[in-house]
Structure formats: C-alpha cells, structure tokens
Design goal:
single chain, 4 helices, 7 strands
C-alpha cells in the first residue's frame, strides 16, 4: 500500500535525502516499509528511497510499484530520475528498468562514482 506522509519524521529518521519542497510517501507490505521523497521539476520526478530492515528485502517490488504509481498519479511526469551511491542500489535500480544517464565523481560513493539513472514512461 502506498500512502502520503503528512509527518515525514519517520522517513527523516532513516536519513532519506530530500529537498525542502519534497513530498514523502510510504510503501508498506508484509511488515516492510520503504520511504520515498519526491520532487517534481518540470516533467521529471526526482526520487530518493530509504527502507527499514524488512523493507530492504522487498526493494525491487517497492521500486516497481512506486514507479508505476508515480506515473499514474502524476500525468505530467514523463521520467523518474534516481541518484545511486551504493553499488547494491545501482544494480537494483538498473534491474527495475532504469537506464544510466551519467556518472559523477563523488568521494563518498562506492567506487567514487555517483550514478544518475532514469526511467521513462
């Protein structure tokens, strides 16, 4: 189930990257929770994820369902962009249909590369 959070304190407790104008959503299934912070910039949705321990096991299902839901609920959005720093997230996001757009040098990222990945409608 996907719900919008009016109080994002639970998502912020997991240190989810966000902007001051971000909207927060929660995906929940079988006790696992995945949080999503979304910003819309023109026809692009910029998304960041954070998950609790059980939610990490269900990230692939969560990413696919959240992507479909975002495209349905935001008809003006044509693309979803994600930034991945960890190798595990880079691989997961690719397996969910996102394509690599760019690699940036980032000392705190795995292999010192931040990847920008995109999924189109």
């Amino acid at each position: 189930m996907i719900t919008e959070l009016w109080d994002p304190s639970s998502a912020l407790a997991l240190a989810i990257p966000h902007q001051p104008c971000s909207r927060f959503f929660k995906w929940e299934r079988s006790g696992g929770i995945v949080y999503l912070a979304v910003n819309q910039r023109g026809d692009v949705l910029e998304c960041h994820l954070a998950a609790d321990r059980r939610g990490k096991r269900q990230l692939r299902v969560a990413v696919n369902q959240l992507s479909q839901w975002l495209f349905m609920s935001c008809p003006t959005a044509n693309r979803i962009v994600s930034y991945a720093m960890k190798n595990s997230m880079k691989n997961l996001v690719r397996k969910c249909g996102f394509r690599l757009v760019a690699r940036l040098v980032c000392a705190s990222a795995d292999r010192a590369e931040l990847e920008i990945l995109m999924r189109c409608r």
